[in-house]
Amino acid sequence: RKSTSTLSIRSKPAGAEVYIRDYVEAGDGAEWVYLGKTPLEPAAVPAGLLVYRLVHAGSTPFEGTSWTVEG
Fold it and tell me: When you count CB atoms within 10 A of the terminal residue's CB, does the N or C end of the chain come out lower?
């Protein structure tokens, strides 16, 4: 059983689509998992190092990383 954590993301403007994937598996072509739209209030995600992607119409997609801990 994989441990879980939570992730909250806000954007300006609101309404950006939020996707995640495992950082380690990203190099192996891991698929993006859709979480919802911003503001994203605590969403359950796998614990560990994640890559997140924000996509909003009319804007360049943004990617970042987040280390989430169990709990």
Answer: N
